[in-house]
Design a protein that fits this description.
Structural class: alpha+beta
Protein name: FAD-binding PCMH-type domain-containing protein
Bound molecules: flavin-adenine dinucleotide
Distance between the termini: 27 Å
Cofactor: FAD
Oligomer: single chain
Pfam family, one: FAD_binding_4
Largest sheet: 6 strands, antiparallel
Signal peptide: 1-30
Number of helices: 12
Organism: Leersia perrieri
CATH topology of the domain at 266-357 and 396-431: Vanillyl-alcohol Oxidase, Chain A, domain 3
Length: 457
Amino acid sequence: MEPKPWRPRLLLHDLLLFLHVSLLACPCSARRRDGSTGVLRESFLRCVARRSPATADPSRLVHAPGDALYPPLLNSTIQNLRFASASSPALLLTPATVDEARACVACCRDHSLSVRARSGGHDYEGLSYRSLSSPNFAVLDVAALRSVRVNAARRVARVEPGATLGELYYAAAAASGGRLGFPAGICPTVCVGGHLSGGGFGPMMRKHGLAADNVVDAEVVDAEGKVLDRAAMGEGLFWAIRGGGGGSFGVVVSWMVNLVPVPAVVSVFTVHRLLLRRGGDDERDLLRLLARWQAVAHALPDELFVKAAMETKAISSILRPLVVFKSLLLGNCSDMVTQMDHHLPELGIKTSDCREMDWLQSMLYFYGYTNGQSPEVLLDRTLQPKDYYKIKLDYLTSPIPAAGLTKLLTKIVEEKGGSIDIDPQGGEVDPEQLFWSEQSIPPLFVDKRDDELVSDS
Ligand SMILES: Cc1cc2nc3c(=O)[nH]c(=O)nc-3n(C[C@H](O)[C@H](O)[C@H](O)COP(=O)(O)OP(=O)(O)OC[C@H]3O[C@@H](n4cnc5c(N)ncnc54)[C@H](O)[C@@H]3O)c2cc1C
């Protein structure tokens, strides 16, 4: 089966979290003390050796331009090829332990290097590995910190930033016999380091909130190289790191997350509405359908998520607008048909449109593997092909009027590709809470007994 990976181009998501992206609080305006890369590297190596005595060979984690490993390591997770040659950090740091990450941050401070934290490298604008404001920066790549330890009985997981969403989903399902999942995004290679820092939305958000809503503790390396857990960092910083934007407040070296119960059977559908002729009854019907969908999508039962995407399809070499409705119900197909018939009969969902599967498979389905695939594919850290893309996010607080929808359908064809995805929130993601006050935070649950956690990857 030919996988159809998620192809980002031009997106309109109904998500806008706190767009605060800045460098870690280091004295980043100062120039680097050392005149040459080699001198900087040697000095940095001595610093790491001093601050992390357990590191037998600091050169394993300190890479400077000119080193053989610098280019392949730097490029390893540059996902957006627009920035493939736009990054030249003074140092690339690849710690393998929390202590090494802590030492690296402290040494960056000692050397007046600002820090770009990188976990999976999916940042739309490459902010985890490039800097427009300061040439004196280091990339702190925490991809090697990637363990996922699940305690199914307690419904929690301790997950390191370099773990991918796919690894977390797989581990949660494997450790619980498919009873537990995690509400986050659809791209399996996105890492939890950046994803949870920015919020993290996905098909279960209406039932269980954003990924960040399900964080109950975290360990962060602050600008002085101290490791702070929730109690040590305080509730203000703990609130900020869950949605305040990656790289803004410190380097997260682990999250403790609540896992959520998922039913043995969930159901999905994908239906297409192709617009062959503009300006006639077909277009009016499609606009009416989109208007109706906008009116109900955020107010459906929390278990039901129905998103819409505007795309294009070539018919006889001419691009036509295509609207794709994709849905997940935490329930079976009989419930799906009943719910859709009740809330959005205009879409005409029939039993034959609906497919039942387990939750893990549904995450693959949303990613593009619609014909079934071994769940082990979720463990492939290179599943998402690297590509050139531009993605913009916006937050809709009122429906797009018919004239606006018409323009979007025209625009998507003019752009000759790309897509405009609209993800409805509501349910557990309350826009009032999101913007005007603190998003609901789960009750304090600090489980220090990590030895009880089961290692799954
Ligand atoms: C193909 C694709 C699909 C996506 N799908 C979804 C989706 O379904 N839902 C959704 O919500 N989002 C989605 N995103 C957006 C994605 O969640 C964010 O770009 C996320 O920040 C990526 O995290 P990362 O660790 O992989 O990226 P990185 O580029 O490594 O990091 C992103 C940001 O977080 C910072 N950061 C990284 N690691 C840490 C850390 N350990 N501590 C502190 N800050 C850190 C970086 O400095 C940077 O600012 C998608 C992105 C792509 C490219």
